[in-house]
Write a structure and sequence with these properties.
Length: 397
């Protein structure tokens, strides 16, 4: 017998079947954000019946979702530094005018109900080009960090004119409360779904391995900080190693920095791996994951690690880690210091707490702590979001 909630949800899915949602992003480099969006679009199509469409400036790189892709056949728009650069601002505005013309021309015969801006500075333009459509901003990073960029004035207009705003966690809601409080009532927390291959032996207490998984980009990710913290930690824990899995624009720089520390022989740069967790399991597992970023959005690597039962040591950066990590339960949340050297020593101290068994973890509890990121849970969130839009605007989507 079908339960009432299941019946209601099945009827909602019928309402959303064939709903065309356009997800607009000027470029698609194939990184963590793109993987997260791909997972959502695949879920919307296969589990809810929505017809997602990806709208890009040019051909995408890396993995793309299983959906229709529209390309505008033009170059990048927002790759210029704007703050304090009046010439670049003028160039950017010209590019935006060209972009708006091509977008309007490409979509004028395309039937759709919702436009989702993956670059928040585009939202106001989308609303003015298509005033009768619902426009949604989907933030994937810290709003506080975004507010420091030259595009913030356009983001503020978008926050005012957008019909709804999607954020990834409560920390981003708190940022909105400070930066643009009138947008909070139309904001929704929707987690990114995470689905992984099953592997045994990813979390191995006693493996004496610290793992980093992610993009090798020193800006934001701060691999230099991780290496320095490990070097200090290693002085008293010489049987431990640091495993760095990933690739990116700063690989050469990270290789150079590795050679400069005393613990260089205990650092293994594994490069890109098709399935990093399978690779970690194959070489003996990890004791914990380390994340030393200046800022994040919803760091998928933390969630992925915890889904395998791996505890995480992460800096309490904006935003994300504090929404996921419960101190001494599924990891350790490390505070920033008043100076960079103090921050590095704080990290080394947290590493030592685990190495010296001053704190221990239950892998089963860790897995349970991130269950809201399972695709089945996120599907319910998106159904509720679409229902809220339908009810708020008194229209059948």
């Amino acid at each position: 017998m079908i339960q009432e909630n299941d019946y209601r949800r099945s009827k909602e899915n019928e309402n959303f079947k064939g709903l065309r949602m356009l997800f607009v992003r000027s470029f698609w480099p194939g990184g963590g954000l793109e993987n997260a969006v791909s997972a959502v679009l695949d879920m919307l199509k296969s589990d809810i019946g929505v017809a997602p469409v990806l709208v890009l400036n040019g051909d995408p790189k890396g993995k793309i979702p299983n959906c229709e892709v529209i390309t505008l056949d033009m170059g990048p728009v927002g790759d210029l530094p704007l703050k304090g650069h009046p010439v670049n601002i003028a160039r950017y505005l010209v590019r935006m005018l060209i972009y708006a013309y091509r977008l309007k021309d490409k979509l004028r015969h395309n039937k759709f109900e919702i436009l989702v801006a993956l670059e928040p500075e585009m939202a106001a333009m989308l609303k003015r080009l298509f005033p009768k459509k619902l426009v949604v901003i989907w933030f994937h990073g810290s709003l506080k960090v975004t507010s420091r960029r030259g595009v913030w004035p356009m983001v503020r207009v978008g926050l005012k004119e957008a019909d709804a705003i999607i954020v990834l966690n409560q920390s981003m809601i708190k940022e909105l409360e400070v930066l643009y409080p009138t947008a909070v009532p139309k904001s929704f927390v929707l987690h990114n779904p995470v689905k992984l291959n099953e592997h045994d032996g990813v979390y191995v207490p006693g493996s004496r391995t610290i793992a980093y998984v992610g993009r090798i980009q020193n800006v934001q990710k701060r691999l230099d900080r991780l290496l320095k913290a490990f070097d200090i930690f290693w002085e008293n824990h010489k049987t431990w190693r640091l495993l760095v899995v990933g690739d990116g624009p700063d690989m050469v720089e990270v290789e150079r920095l590795t050679k400069e520390i005393n613990a260089a022989e205990n650092v293994h740069l594994a490069g890109w791996q098709e399935d990093p967790w399978e690779y970690i399991a194959e070489i003996g597992g990890a004791e914990f994951l380390a994340l030393t970023s200046d800022f994040e959005g919803s760091p998928l690597t933390i969630i992925e690690a915890m889904m395998y039962g791996v505890p995480v040591v992460a800096l309490d950066c904006p935003v994300g880690p504090s929404d996921i990590i419960v101190n001494n339960k599924n990891g350790i949340l490390v505070p920033f210091g008043s100076a960079e050297t103090i921050t590095i020593h704080n990290l080394a101290s947290a590493f030592s707490q685990i190495a010296e068994a001053l704190v221990s973890f239950d892998g089963t509890f860790i897995k349970q702590s991130v269950k809201e990121y399972l695709p089945s849970s996120v599907k319910v969130e998106w159904e509720a979001f679409l229902s809220a839009l339908q009810e708020r605007f008194h229209k059948s989507l």
